[in-house]
């Protein structure tokens, strides 16, 4: 009788290895939601603050924000972050601008420490309504409004709808146009599958977050472990992963391009020349559509130039704000 293992024995052995490998992967990449309280110490030290914002229908949204610089500034600078980011993306700019200007940054619903919207609505129009309520509660009637990526798209739509509130506009690799992407971050490429969405809510490989951040930088070597930690941990804020899935499903690029011609505010358009998510041709399109606009491209930078090289990019903002 042969001592060679039977096919069935070999199959059982392979299945055993597969189960073991799956268990090890599950142990390595299991990443349950984290409650807000567990993240505050690291990601919301002073001057971070929280407010309870009243929404239409009586719902309440907790909002994480920072209000820095001289309160005597009656036209504060308000900066909006992009998809899967947070107010921390503006820290370099805030450090420079807040020396002479009041600067307000916030985590938009579904992201950062603000967390998911109680309305479950992540459309651009819903964000516009949220911003109006936020500005009303902080008693901000006039501002310089800026935004990156998704936040840039929300900024130009808000400026078009509320021209009396926006004294100037700063768009940084702004979304809102319907243009093809040369590359989409790995973390955004989740197929429309309930099983995969469930898995994404249970597992989050840190290498996937690392890769996604590097893909939006012009120079990936600028990405360090602390930066990846921030994106990784804030994505785990309770409810954020489900909110991201909903936001990606509810996007309607190009739907509001007709608003661009209504923008009256002087507008600075900044772009990373190595942006593969929203290509630099978008800067040209925005410039052509917005009457009082100027463009500056940073050849070596990617989709988040304000984060990748805050010193160079904020200088353009200083020049813009002090121009006649």
Could you characterize what this model shows?
It is a single chain. With 324 residues, this protein is of the alpha/beta class. Strands 1-2-4-3-5-6-7-8 form an 8-stranded mixed sheet, with helices on both faces. The protein has helices spanning 7-29, 37-43, 91-97, 124-137, 150-161, 194-200, 206-215, 225-235, 240-250, 281-289, 305-308, 310-321, and strands at 48-54, 60-68, 77-80, 103-106, 143-149, 166-174, 267-272, 293-298. The termini are far apart. Strand 5 (143-149), helix 5 (150-161) and strand 6 (166-174) form a beta-alpha-beta unit. The chain has a single domain, classed as Rossmann fold, CATH 3.40.50.1820. InterPro entries: AB_hydrolase_1, AB_hydrolase_fold, AB_hydrolase_sf.
SSE layout and pairing:
Layout: H1 7-29, H2 37-43, E1 48-54, E2 60-68, E3 77-80, H3 91-97, E4 103-106, H4 124-137, E5 143-149, H5 150-161, E6 166-174, H6 194-200, H7 206-215, H8 225-235, H9 240-250, E7 267-272, H10 281-289, E8 293-298, H11 305-308, H12 310-321
Parallel strand pairs: 3-4, 3-5, 5-6, 6-7, 7-8
Antiparallel strand pairs: 1-2, 2-4
Task: Please tag this protein with its features.
alpha/beta; 324 residues
Give the biggest beta sheet: 8 strands, mixed
DSSP summary: helix tally = 12
Topology as a string of helices (H) and strands (E): HHEEEHEHEHEHHHHEHEHH
CATH class descriptor: Alpha Beta
* Content of β-strand: 15-25%
Shape: globular
GO molecular function: hydrolase activity
Keywords: Hydrolase
Domain AB hydrolase-1: 76-310
Pfam families: Abhydrolase_1
